[in-house]
């Protein structure tokens, strides 16, 4: 009778229940089902891990971008300060040049006044001797 049932693809299992598939195929199918569930769980865990990794990487990327912008701002500030110092230096150099020119003019005027004073003193001495 078991052979007649097998011809129509019916089988007895270990507890003598009639099945549509053979017991070893059923066991393999159940093992495959369990393996697939394990694989699916592992894939979901892997997906969660990847998502958390992507979040961490995004945070790091945002942090790097902030630091990069801060560094660019600092560089621009430094360049601005450098240009201000150069401008101040040029202004002070121009002021030094002006003061040097005025000093030279005053030196020339002083020399001329000393010569005039010497001449006037000679004239005064000459006039006092004549008297």
Automatic annotation (TrEMBL):
Q: What's the domain of life for this entry? A: Eukaryota
According to its UniProt entry, the protein's GO biological process terms are: cilium assembly; protein localization to cilium
Keyword Coiled coil part of the UniProt annotation: yes
Q: Where in the cell is it found?
A: Cell projection, Cilium
Q: Does the keyword Coiled coil apply?
A: yes
Its chief place of residence is other
Tell me which Pfam families the record gives. IFT20
Q: Which UniProt keywords apply?
A: Cell projection, Coiled coil
Offer a single GO CC term for the protein.
intraciliary transport particle
Report what the protein is called: Intraflagellar transport protein 20 homolog
Q: What is the lineage of its organism?
A: Eukaryota, Metazoa, Ecdysozoa, Arthropoda, Hexapoda
Q: Which residues form a coiled coil?
A: 78-109
């Amino acid at each position: 009778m078991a052979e007649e049932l097998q011809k129509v693809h019916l089988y007895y299992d270990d507890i003598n229940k009639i099945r549509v598939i053979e017991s070893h195929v059923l066991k393999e199918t159940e093992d495959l089902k369990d393996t697939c569930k394990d694989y699916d769980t592992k894939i979901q865990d892997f997906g969660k891990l990847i998502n958390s990794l992507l979040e961490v990487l995004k945070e790091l990327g945002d942090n790097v971008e902030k630091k990069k912008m801060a560094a660019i701002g600092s560089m621009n500030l430094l360049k601005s300060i450098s240009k201000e110092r150069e401008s101040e230096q040029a202004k002070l150099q121009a002021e030094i040049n002006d003061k040097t020119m005025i000093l030279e003019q005053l030196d020339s005027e002083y020399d001329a006044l000393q010569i005039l004073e010497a001449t006037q003193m000679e004239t005064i001495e000459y006039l006092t001797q004549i008297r």
